[in-house]
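Progress report, Aim 2. The chain analyzed during this reporting quarter is listed below.
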Amino acid sequence: MMDAMDRHPPHVTSFVHIGLVVEDLDETVRFLSLLGFDCSRPAVHGGEWIDRIIGLENAEVEVVMVRGPDGDDVFEVVRFRSPAAGTQEPAPAANRPGLRHVAFTVDDLRGVVDRVRDAGWETVGEIVDYEGMFLLCYVRGPEGLIVELAERLDRAASTAPDRGAR
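Predicted structure tokens for the chain:
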């Protein structure tokens, strides 16, 4: 007799969101809004369930849910009211182990980069044409957050192989 594990082993079924802990919630929300994300109003949470899930005592957090253009939540941006993290480290380099960046498509990469620069943030490197398929650029937001922007180039769509032809 087959048990449930033999038929279908447990596995990830879908993406939910990325948790981003920040010190300056307002500045991070400003940056993400500038990129075109819809940011909720902050909600405050605390209590035993949070303490138990994150392994800290007396936690109180302010949370902003950030929704992408497709309507799905993408980020859970969190500022800890308590306990304080107290980190003042410089932003890690792009090659530092760990979750280093998130990537999104944009409709006008140069326009978005100009808007980011006008608002006071910078690119990590430069805008690059990747094999005529994408314009790519990393921008660095508040607290070292790196966002990769990708604009699909028209010629990539026109040169894509016809998957129906064999």
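The CA atoms of residues 32 and 152 lie 21 Å apart. The chain is about 20% helix and 30% strand. These observations will guide the mutagenesis work planned for the next reporting period.
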